[in-house]
Amino acid sequence: MSDKTRISWTDATWNPIVGCKRVTHRCQHCYAERGAPRLVRLGLAQYDGLTRETRDGVRWTGKARWVEAVAGKPLGWRKARRIFINAQSDIAYAGVKPRWRARIWWIIGQCAGFLDPSRARGHEFQILTGRPQGLLEWTETWADPAARRALVENLYGDGRGEVYDWMSSPKYWPDELPNLLLGVSVCDQAEADAARETWKRLKDRGWRVWVSYEPALGPVDWTGWEWLDWLVIGGESGPDARPCERVWLADAVAWAAQNGVPCFVKQLGDAYSDPANGVAGPRLKVDSPPPPTLRLDRAAVTDPTAWGPELRVREFPKGRI
After folding, report:
1. Distance (Å, rounded) from C-alpha 34 to C-alpha 185?
2. Count of alpha carbons within 13 Å of 12, Cβ hemisphere only?
3. Cα-Cα-Cα-Cα dihedral of 149, 151, 156, 160, to 10°?
4. Residue 72: what pLDDT?
5. Cα(20)–Cα(199) distance, integer angstroms
6. Do 283 and 239 meet the contact criterion of CB atoms below 8 Å apart?
């Protein structure tokens, strides 16, 4: 966890939960899964036991863990920033305990000044899940007054909660936190179709919602998503990156512009493919002629100044508090 990050669409990462499990083919080259053993070697004990070596490479064990040492970090960051929550996990994963989710919501609410205006920090929090139904169900749990009170009164799992006046504070917190954007990951048409109605329900209830189309592994027709607050786009990175075609990215950018949806192109991907212009990413395997006339290096696929103007788009959602 750091108040600096190489993720271009955020300013900081906050990882109070670590550990996960694969959910779809999108997770095949998960950077968090692949990188966990390195973090153990660097002395970060919270990652110990979360992955194992197999004949097919590193795999999650399915364990998830709360990291108390970093739980309150956003309250200590005085400068307002965008904060990506749980870059090393998925808040909607079944292995995540409800009280851990409640702790995160509690801290986000404090950063909005709901409990004490003097603690307002101006942060904008970002969540990304590969389990849209699970996140919808969690928001419904939080919106239930009896469930919320039970969670807040047992935030530490031993019958202890925060000190508060229920009648004047958390009971009346908004069900939809205005300083939090709820995001869903999709990689192709099937995943986009599966997530759309769930995400529309969240939008209709007042949540700010976004989609991460990364890794883009197939074309998507975005018709029916015109209510989105943000669309982030990118090809896959890493040594085994799967192909990402320019037309998939360009069509998504064009759709967003036509419908007034802020759009952010994060990267072209290491296996970027633009045969019409003879351009390829550094790891694209070309099995048939003609070979690309231009091989982008790894720096170029993440550097917007090296891209055509139609992809050089880095917008952020409106309404940041």
Report:
1. 18
2. 19
3. 30
4. 94
5. 22
6. yes
